[in-house]
Amino acid sequence: MALTNITFSTLVLLGFLLVVETIPRSSAKIANYDEYLQKRAEESFEASLKAFNPKPEEVTEDFNELVGAELLSQNGTRRNLRERGCRATNPIDQCWRCDRNWARNRKRLADCARGFGHRTTGGKMGRIYVVTDPSDDDMVNPKPGTLRHAVIQPEPLWIIFSHHMIIRLRQELIFTSHKTIDGRGAQVHIAYGAGLTLQFVQNVIIHNVWIHDIIPASGGMIRDAINHLGYRTRSDGDAISVYSSSNIWIDHVSLSKSTDGLIDVIEASTAITISNCKFNHHNDVMLLGAHDSDAKDAIMQVTVAFNRFGQGLIQRMPRCRWGFFHVVNNDYSHWELYAIGGSAHPTILSQGNRFKASNGRYIKEVTKRDYAPKSEWMKWQWRSEGDLFMNGAFFTESGPPIKYTRNPLTARNTIQFRPGTFVGRLTRFAGALKCNIGRPC
């Protein structure tokens, strides 16, 4: 069943009742839900409902129109871009990477999100905060100049880094809303410690950092806001965990080797774009929806675009539940179990991806359904349009075709449905970039 067949008023009522009932159960590593956290949870779910689009096909069409238009224009402008030193190869990158003065115009990036997370502006309306100290020694009173001190501030902030650094987090890094992590101009590795937690927040950008070798942390008293301190239980070891949050954009991040997931998005999080990232050497790569029983995840809407799923990956690229997922123009190479999976009747639109299967005889299929007989999952809306399949890869479709809102489709709408031969170009610069000041990034 497509998400758009659910009436919005019914969804709102269902979701509200569910979130109220599950706050004590779905503790998200919170030992005690005090009044402050209860209020944040309720406000966050209300924000997710506002961010939810009852016509998700309109967002996918807008995204595809933009890609189509850019591909048409590239033929005439590629030489000029090379002469200017600009090597941007997809619409998100072309929004900002050709500016040699990007370091003076950092916040231009905030206008470049596309897909379901297109309203995300992060700390655009705030001041620049410079992280000068890679240490993470005090969970209760973080030292000024550290990343932990930056992300708990109450106001919008655009957070940058003074030099190359490796940040080893002693406990999970818990964000407040309206923040941008902008690693351009420095090589910033968040590694060998805990990961990032976006819980009950809105409007966050994570851009141009390396996150790897993430391990669980023991928990304890951690400040999650200037005016709040709470006790956290042991963390799972996710690189990035998004919990009951909305308007999130993760872009140009290189992720590998965490104990649990590289990116987990759960608990009615929505309006999210994951783009231009590079994933390597991991088992459970990307989880979008944690439990089949979490019906509130019906409002989850995620765009996964221009990413490279590379060496040593096994499964969950992504693994989806309940919501609407646009998986577009990604590069998949040699998965060891499956690439795209799910349960609880998610809607998955796979467009213009390049799937190159492993050599193993029994791991050619892109898709995997769980916890449902064929008579049920054949009703789930999983569609492949314009994908390129290599080395025996194949996608098992189900459900009716996606209904488009604009009819008839024009050439600009349909150009993205050509075979995924564009993917090599579109994903060429996926992952964290080494940007030099004074030159296009």
UniProtKB/TrEMBL annotation:
Cofactor(s) the record lists: Ca(2+)
EC number: 4.2.2.2
Keyword Manganese: no
Catalytic activity: Eliminative cleavage of (1->4)-alpha-D-galacturonan to give oligosaccharides with 4-deoxy-alpha-D-galact-4-enuronosyl groups at their non-reducing ends
Keyword terms: Calcium, Glycoprotein, Lyase, Metal-binding, Signal
Cofactor, free-text remark: Binds 1 Ca(2+) ion. Required for its activity.
GO terms of biological process kind: pectin catabolic process
Pathway the protein acts in: Glycan metabolism; pectin degradation; 2-dehydro-3-deoxy-D-gluconate from pectin: step 2/5
Protein name: Pectate lyase
